[in-house]
Amino acid sequence: MIYAFDTYYYPDFAYTVCLAFESWTDEKETFIFTEKTAVAPAYESGAFYKRELPCILSLLEKIDLKPEDVIVVDGYVTLDDNGKTGLGGYLYEALKNQVPVVGIAKNEFAAPDSKRKAICRGESKTPLFLTTAGTEPESMVGNIKDMHGNFRIPSLLKRLDQLTRLA
Fold first, then answer.
1. What is the pTM for the complete model shown?
2. Mind giving me the DSSP string for 138-158?
3. Distance CA 132, CA 140 (A)
């Protein structure tokens, strides 16, 4: 199963949504998991994970993860060639390096990362940025390109973003 997570922050709570789907090419999710949590700390530049990681870990308590599953986060797993870790990397560590994590970011991080892959989907000239832990990024490029939808953002990831704003 593939589990894609996103969190949206409201004034008095955070709303985390997870869409579960069986195949990278699926048009519709198989399951939806949601959770409201207390407001996370204010955004701290360079430490986004401090805000979002607790939300994801809390929602993961409702999910029976298996080693063959994959988690997708809206953001980065690695941030640079010097080993700086992003949200997905901290999640991978929290899961004791047992479940692969794929980060898909909409904006490029400034520092160079030789493992970061830029992926253009559909007719968009603006790429998505892919980083991973527990699997090689090259092995995920085709999966992200093949996700359902004709536009830059795959259909399920767009739906995920929309659902987080409906709390």
1. 0.94
2. HHHHHHHHHSS-SSSS-HHHH
3. 8
**Letter for the amino acid at 166?**
L
Q: Which residues pair with 11 in a beta bridge?
A: none
106 three-class SS: coil
CA 39 from chain center: how many Å?
Answer: 20
CA angle 144, 59, 115 (to 5 degrees): 35
Of 43, 112, 107, nearest in space to 75 by CA = 107
Mean pLDDT of the region 41-64: 84
64's CB contacts (< 8 A; 6+ apart) are none
- Take residue 3 and report the two structure tokens written for it: 């589990």
Q: How many CB atoms lie within 10 A of CB 30?
A: 12
DSSP 63-100: S---TT-EEEEES-SB-STT--B-HHHHHHHHTTT-S-
Dihedral (C-alpha) 95, 25, 22, 164: value to the nearest 10 degrees?
A: 60
Minimum mean pLDDT among 11-15, 21-25, 130-134, 137-141: which range? 11-15
Q: Which residues pair with 37 in a beta bridge?
A: 14
Does residue 41 have a pLDDT over 90? no
Q: Encoding tokens for residue 111?
A: 């520092």
